[in-house]
Design goal:
It is found in: Membrane. By secondary structure, the chain is mainly α. About 75% of the residues lie in helices and about 5% in strands. Helix 1 (about 1-75) runs antiparallel to helix 2 (about 90-205).
């Protein structure tokens, strides 16, 4: 059940990751559309800007011509007939200021035309910033989901390690039990062997010795071999003792 739940969680996280990736793709598409709109606006504005520049050049040429005429009027000496009354200085100043005003007018027109464009560019920049913020948020969400996945995987690994440790402990316990059983079997076998040896010694002590010194005969066959330390080893599978004298 735990593994099934973890698998379901992993599937849900994968679905969330796919959704986030789709959102990222949509945002990228929106960014591309905005960039295309900016390019279109610039392409549309380029002819307008060129027209404005041409107008400015024409105005500048006209202003230069006016300035030249005014300078000629001012610098030329008066005719020899009686001089007419001099024009007032205010009029001359106004005539000099007129070209400057004419120069400023196209600049003002340019500013008036460029202001909405600048506003549009600012709005587009704000939209781009918002989209970038959204992208950053989505990236943060992706990182959080990846961290959650890593935590879940770590938990799974820890559970697997715990299971492996439990299996190792069980194997060690089984090995210890087998060793104990082997030791008990060996001890039991050694105890029975020592008991059989004692019984053989007691039975051999009651038999009659053969004239051959060192053997107890069973139908003319050696049943026990005796050494000089009075240790006896059985050579027959049975424990029936019989001396050659008895035969």
């Amino acid at each position: 059940m735990l593994l099934l739940l973890l698998l379901l969680l992993l599937l849900l996280l994968l679905l969330l990751l796919l959704l986030l990736l789709l959102l990222l793709l949509l945002l990228l598409l929106l960014l591309l559309l905005l960039l295309l709109l900016l390019l279109l606006l610039l392409l549309l504005l380029l002819p307008l800007l060129l027209l404005l520049l041409l107008l400015l050049l024409l105005l500048l040429l006209l202003l230069l011509l006016l300035l030249l005429v005014l300078l000629l009027l001012v610098l030329l000496p008066p005719p020899p007939p009686p001089p007419p009354p001099p024009p007032p200085r205010l009029l001359l100043l106004l005539l000099l200021l007129l070209p400057l005003l004419l120069l400023l007018l196209p600049l003002l027109l340019l500013l008036l035309l460029l202001l909405p464009l600048l506003l549009l560019l600012l709005l587009l920049l704000l939209l781009l910033l918002l989209l970038l913020l959204l992208l950053l948020l989505l990236l943060l969400l992706l990182l959080l989901l990846l961290l959650l996945l890593l935590l879940l995987l770590l938990q799974l690994l820890l559970l697997l390690l715990l299971l492996l440790l439990l299996l190792l402990l069980l194997l060690l316990l089984l090995l210890l039990l087998l060793l104990l059983l082997l030791l008990l079997h060996h001890h039991h076998h050694h105890h029975h062997h020592s008991q059989d040896k004692k019984r053989i010694h007691t039975m051999a002590a009651t038999t009659t010795y053969s004239p051959y010194r060192g053997a107890c005969m069973f139908y003319k066959q050696p049943l026990f071999l005796w050494d000089f330390n009075h240790n006896c080893s059985c050579l027959s599978p049975t424990h029936i003792f019989r001396s050659p004298v008895m035969k």
